[in-house]
Each structure stands twice: as C-alpha cells, then as structure tokens.
Design brief:
Strand order of the largest sheet: 2-3-5-4
Structural class: alpha+beta
Radius of gyration: 25 Å
Largest sheet: 4 strands, mixed
CATH class of the largest domain: Alpha Beta
Number of strands: 11
Shape: globular
Number of helices: 27
CATH architecture of the largest domain: 3-Layer(aba) Sandwich
Distance between the termini: 17 Å
Oligomer: single chain
CATH superfamily of the largest domain: Collagenase (Catalytic Domain)
C-alpha cells in the first residue's frame, strides 16, 4: 500500500494494477505446492519456502522490470482494458463516450502517423521558449506550459486540502525541477550513481540532437541542464525528511512568501497558473525556493531556456516519433534494466486509464465488477474494524486517555469500495484520432483545470485517488478514509470460491494495512476529523515512537542487493501497516468457522494457509537495476521483506510452522515488536 501526499496516503503496491475474475475464468489453486520450495525450512526463509519454485520458473519478461503476483494481475487486466478500448473504437460513431476513449486509443496506436510528424507537435513550444527575453518571460512560460499540459518545470504545484483545516482547499508548492528519480542520483559519488549520471548526460545530448542541434550545441546544452538540475537537487530535502507532515507544512501569506523570493512575485505566478484570489499558500521546502530565486539570476537566461526545452522534451518524448521513444527507453533501460519496450497497446491502454480513468472505469466496472463483491468487502471491512477496536482496547503500552482518541478516529473512518458514487464528466475534452500529443495535452489541461477550480469550493469527499480498475488500495489522512478500487478484488487477494484463510490472508491483510495507515508514524499525527494535530498524551507518543524506532532498526538490517540495505526510515509507514494489518487480519480470521474447525486443506492447516497466502501476495522477481532504484524512491520494502518482516513478530506464525530457536528467522518472544 502506498502513502500518497496529503490527500491520499498508503497503497498496498508499488504500482497500480487491475481486474476482478469474471465468470468463466479458471478457478485458481489457492495454495499450490508446485510454487513452493519445500527444501527450504519455513524458519530459514519463509518467503522462499512459500514461493521458491515460482520465483525460479518465472523470470522477469523482457518488457517488464518486475514480475510477481501484482504484475501477473496487471498483465491480465491490461488485456481487458485493451479489449474495452478496441470495442470502444468500433462504437465511436454512435456513442460520444465511446468515441472519446476509442479515438484516443486509435491515436496512440497509429505509430505511422506519429512517426511522420517527428517532433512537429512540440515545434511551436520550442519556438516560444526561444523567444523568451528575460526572467519574467521565463516564469510566465513555466506557468503557461503547466496550464497547457506540455511540461512541468522547476517546482511542484497543486491544489489540495489544507492539512490543518481540511474543510478548505489551498494552493501548495513543492520542491521539484529534477528529472532523475531521486536527488541522490545527482549527489552521490558511488559507482552506480556515477554511471547513471554519465548515462543521463549522454541521454540529454542525444535528445537535443534529435531536435536538430549540432554536436557541440547538444553537448553544451546537456551540460547546462545537468548543472541546473544538480543545483536544484542540492536544495531538495530527502524523501525521508519529506515524510514529516509538520516539517513540510509551512504556511505563508502570498505577499510574505514573495518577499522571500525577490525574483518571483507569487501573486502574479498564481494568477498565471489560473488560480485567482488565493491569499495564502503552503510550501513544503521554503529553503528550496530561496535557492531557486538565487539561481534565476545567477544562471544565464540561455541556460534556463535550454532547461525549459529539456523539460518539454522529457515530458513529450514517449508520445513522439520512434527515435524519441527509443532514446527515452534507452534511459529507462539504464535506470531499471528493462530489456524491451512495453507493448504499444499496453502503453496506450495505461495512459487512457490515467487520463480518462472514470470513463474507462465505468466500462470496466460494468463488465468485471460483481455487486456481491462490494457487499462482501463491506462485511470484511466491518470485521477488521471491530477486531482493531478490540486490539486498541487491549494495548498494554497506551493509556486509556489516548485509547479514547484512537477509537474515535477509527470510528470516524469513511469507507470507499469499488468505484466512485459520482463519475467525472470528460465530455468537454476534444479527442482527435489523428492527434495523439494533442489528446494527451487536452486531457492534461482538463485535469489541471479540474484541480485549480476546486479552490474556493467546498471539499469534495466523493473524489477517488485511484481509478476503478486499479489493483491497489489507499488511506487518506486528510479525509480519514480507506478506499478499495474494484480491481483489487481478485485472487490472490480475494476470491468468492476461496476458503477464509485465503481471503483473510489476502484482502483481509490489505484492509488491515489501510486501517493501520491511519495509525502509522505519519497517519497517527492526523486526528479523527482529518486535521494535522496531536491527539496523543506525551508519554504515549514517546512509547509509540520507541516502538516505531524498533521497526526502523529491524528493516535497516535487511539486505536487498549486494551492499544495499532496506531504508527502514523511508519504509516505516508501510512496515508498520504491514505488521498491524497482518496481526489484525489473523485475529479476525480466528473468529471464522474454518479456523475454529481446524481442518486441513491440501496438507495445510487454516493458520498455515493464511500465512502462505500472505507470502505469495508478495512473490516478485525484480531486475537488479530496478531494485537499486526502488530502494531510493519507494516507500515500500521489497517483496521478500514484506512477506518475512511482519511474520517474525507474530507468535501465531511461529506456532503454525513450528519455528524454533536456531532457525534463521527466529526472534525471541521478548524482542518481537507489537504495536497495533
């Protein structure tokens, strides 16, 4: 699950997937010994015991960076999206909604037409950048490009709920402006980071050459971009620092913030960003913007224009002709190790899910989501909430005073299941089957306008942070809500035909994970009404932080790739959620008839099946380059450690598999971490 900004937080997966098993699909074998490695003792490496044979026989396909349970589901569901889009492309003449997504799909699949245009779709933008005369013109272009959906440069901008006054929307500014996945790629001197920087410099050079620059100019421009982005990276806070909701909450009157950046009048900038009437703004890293202000006058205007051209190029490359797509992918290969381009149909289907997700989602839900799945989910969520309430009441480290507040927050949770009650209306977006880049921009413009026009209006809590086909889930601290898109309701998470051990070890743990996100090291700083405010006694807060630090230490000790370790601080929220969610799900499972009867299925007890399904959810092969990148950028631990990390702290796992002192994974009872 993933933490998502101030409005959303916490999805179970690194990436969203899709699908619910439709009628007629082959029923899965829920725990298949053929996928296990029975030569590995459960207490030596539970993840390999549960998944070892599957991992050996399922290498990462050429067009992927990872291959695991989530990716298998994504592959199948992307085929379903393709079928929906293909059908829509045939019905466009009679149904305007079908026309929109069908023509969008056709425009993305018409590579011959795209190739014939070269980079002409961005030629006017390049000319406009060339015409910039001063810093004011530069800032105007940055705002204009963002409103037009052509590029995003220098900083992040969005309109969302005020964390300390969640009934109001407020503009927010964030550090940004860099292209590589993390600031460390610009700053670290290890061989891996250096090699990536060198490859990036070559990538910049080749991209500039593709728009007609001679070798010397392309080289000079590549160096200019790298200098600017390195300076921006130095001013950025780390991802771990950015997890602190108080440190990143810096509220200014617009005029006062402008006084800190003499080169930028934020009233003018906000107006140019199509946001009028705002008198205050939240800034996540004020020091970053002071650096930006210095750079605006210290860096030559010509270099800034080059930087804007690069941001345009980088934003557009995947949608332009084949040479741009191939060079863009060459850099992706360096970062992730991916061997082959994602199939065009899959790439285009995913884009449309992102751009017109509610429209495609309506088709998806109609065909693949069973109403009874929603009813079953509502029942499971209630079971997990009831179980968690009991666990809170029994905590031995928390005072009664704080328990009252914790239960108040739990009881205030809003639950969203399946799909939105109110669908977004995209009818104003013009889609032209002969204009792929234009379609992308017009859809982006719609989304941007949809965002900025929220300002001054009541907060709309019907909005979702994920599209219906997504195989994921999330928790939003500002709304104090948990959400489960339709797509996640399929095996290994959920299946109507499965025994309770499978469903509680899958979707039950997911539900518990999202609930626990409201009480992880970040979510616990938000109150029942969604506002960022402290509801803890001082003593209880100290105890909680002490327990959380033990989780950090546990995960810091885990190795991922050669000398690279899990970042226990960056992944803390997800690790607490995994631990809490699995404990919660197991206790809820013990109340079921299956658990009480204790009958074995396929040679495994109910408890064993519960933990085995938890482990097989996380089976995953990943390319070394991808693993190295995710350690820097992802708030989730790798699959093996998500499977193994929580169970070593759960007594029931030891009992289920007879784990004894001397086993590699054995942790003495007094050292097992118990939080929620």
């Amino acid at each position: 699950m993933r933490k998502l900004t101030t409005t959303l937080a916490a999805g179970i997966a690194v990436a969203g997937l899709v699908a619910f098993t439709p009628p007629g699909d082959k029923k899965p074998k829920y725990i298949d010994k053929a996928n296990m490695d029975l030569s590995v003792k459960p207490g030596e490496n539970f993840y390999l015991y549960a998944n070892g044979s599957w991992l050996k026989s399922n290498p990462v396909p050429g067009s992927k960076t990872r291959w695991g349970s989530f990716d298998v589901l994504r592959e199948e569901s992307s085929k379903r999206l393709q079928a929906l889009l293909t059908e829509a492309s045939k019905k466009g003449a009679t149904d305007p909604k079908m026309q929109q997504i069908g023509d969008f799909y056709l425009s993305g699949m018409d590579t011959a037409a795209i190739d014939a245009k070269g980079f002409t779709p961005i030629a006017a933008d390049l000319q406009r950048i060339d015409a910039i005369k001063d810093v004011a013109g530069l800032l105007n272009e940055i705002a204009f490009a963002r409103t037009q959906g052509s590029s995003s440069a220098l900083f992040g901008f969005f309109v969302t709920q005020d964390r300390k006054a969640v009934i109001q929307y407020i503009p927010q500014l964030s550090q940004g402006g860099t292209t590589l996945p993390d600031r460390d790629y610009y700053l670290k001197g290890d061989s891996r980071s250096t090699a990536i920087r060198n490859a990036y410099a070559q990538h910049l050079n080749k991209m500039f050459a593709l728009i007609g620059e001679d070798a010397a100019t392309a080289q000079a421009h590549a160096e200019a971009v790298l200098r600017i982005e390195t300076a921006l990276a130095k001013a950025q806070m780390s991802r771990t620092e950015m997890r602190d909701p108080y440190k990143t909450y810096n509220k200014f009157a617009v005029k006062d913030f402008s006084a800190t950046t003499p080169s930028i009048d934020w009233s003018t900038m906000l107006n140019n960003l199509k946001l009028t009437g705002a008198d205050s703004v939240i800034v996540n890293n004020p020091a970053f913007f002071k650096t930006v202000d210095v750079l605006l006058t210290a860096v030559p205007l010509a270099d800034w224009k080059t930087y804007l051209k690069w941001r345009l190029l980088d934003n557009s490359a995947a949608y332009l002709s084949k040479p741009f797509v191939q060079q863009n992918f060459a850099m992706t290969q360096v970062l992730t190790g991916q061997k082959e381009l994602t199939p065009r149909w899959q790439f285009t289907s995913s884009l449309i899910d992102n751009q017109l997700g509610d429209l495609l989602g309506q088709l998806y839900v109609s065909k693949y989501f069973k109403p009874e799945a929603k009813a079953r989910m509502q029942e499971l969520v209630k079971n997990l909430e009831t179980t968690f309430a009991g666990r809170i009441q029994r905590l031995d480290w928390m005072s009664d005073e704080t328990k009252v507040k914790a239960l108040e927050k739990l009881n205030a949770f809003t639950k969203k299941i399946g799909y939105p009650d109110v669908w977004k209306d995209y009818s104003s977006i013009k889609i032209d089957r002969a204009d792929f880049v234009g379609n992308m921009r017009r859809a982006s413009q719609w989304a941007y306008n949809d965002m900025v026009t929220r300002y001054g209006k009541p907060v709309d809590k019907t909005r979702w942070g994920m599209t219906p086909p997504t195989i994921n889930a999330y928790y939003s601290p500002s709304n104090n809500e948990i959400a489960f898109p339709a797509g996640i309701l399929q095996f290994p998470f959920f299946d109507f035909g499965a025994d309770d051990a499978i469903n509680y070890g899958g979707i039950g743990a997911v539900i518990g994970h999202e609930i626990t996100h409201g009480f992880d090291d970040n979510g616990a700083q938000y109150a029942a009404d969604g506002n960022l405010k402290n509801w803890w006694t001082k003593d209880d807060e100290a105890k909680f932080k002490g327990l959380a630090n033990r989780v950090v230490e546990q995960y810091n000790a885990l190795t991922v790739l050669d000398t690279i370790h899990v970042n226990g601080r960056l992944t803390l929220g997800e690790n607490i959620a995994d631990l809490g969610g699995l404990n919660m799900a197991y206790e809820a499972f013990t109340k079921t008839k299956q658990f009480k009867e204790g009958k074995m299925i396929d040679g495994f007890t109910p408890a064993q099946r519960f933990f085995l399904n938890w482990a097989q959810v996380w089976r995953n092969n990943a390319l070394p380059e991808t693993q190295a990148q995710l350690i820097l950028t992802d708030s989730h631990a790798p699959g093996m450690h998500r499977a193994n990390g929580p169970v070593v702290n759960i007594d029931a796992w030891y009992e289920a598999f007879g784990i004894q002192p001397g086993d590699k994974m054995y942790v003495a009872p007094e050292k097992r971490i118990r939080i929620w």
